Every structure is written in C-alpha cells, then in structure tokens.
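Here is my example:
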Amino acid sequence: MILRLIKINMKKTFLITTSLLITGIFTGWLYGTSIINSMMKGEIGISTFVFLPSKNILDTYILLNSRNELNRLEGYYSYKESGLNDHEFLIKRYKIEKSVLIRKTIIWILESSGNDTEKLDIYKKLYEASPASLKKYLQKKINNYDLIKE
C-alpha cells in the first residue's frame, strides 16, 4: 500500500516538475525575445541589462546606432545573424538611413523572411521612402512579383 502511494506521488511529482520546467523555458524565451526587441527599438530599461542573454545583442545595438556607416552596416549584418526579424523596426531604420548600400542591406534582410505577399507589401512601403535609384531597384522587384502572379 505504501509503495503504491509512493509510485503515485512520484508520477505526480514528475508531471508537475516537467510541466513547470517547460512553462519556465517557454516564459523565459518569450521574455528574452521581448527584452531584445524592445532594446533594438531603443526602449532600454534596467531589466535589459540585468537579464540580457548575450553581449552580442548589446554590441549589435551599439553598432546600429553608430555614426560610422561601416559600423552600422556591420550592425545590420549582426542583426540578421541574431535571428531577430522585426519588419517595422527595419522599415523605420530604412527611412532613417541615407546610405544606398545600407538601405539595400535592409531590403536584403527584410526579403530573407516572410512569404511573397509580405515581401510585396514591404517593397511597396519601402518604395515610398526611397530615392530615385532605389525606386528603380524596388520597382523591378515589385514587377517580378506581378509577373509571378500572372
């Protein structure tokens, strides 16, 4: 009888422990993603520095906000490698950037994720904020999607 109770309690303990572990991992992942995204948008709080999962994220933030164009370019490559992909953030950065090279890099990052409909919408949003040389580049991409649909 006692052995039976111990087996039942061990099963319950195992199930509770496993569910708590999975819940903790999922919650930590969500919170970590939230911290990183808010930091990239410039919303830095004390919790960002306390719970920051990687020094690389902080380095990326510093590079993206550098005055040096090459450092910012390196920051965008680092951003892509980090796995972050906030389209609205990148579109805002595209509008801020003046360098054609950096703007093309942002387009490359944006088109590396999402489906065709999202990409077409992104190209149209970027088209409005682009200089003439990039408008031609984006128009070719938009036309390619129109040809695919036909």
Q: What stands out?
A: The chain has a mean pLDDT of 80.
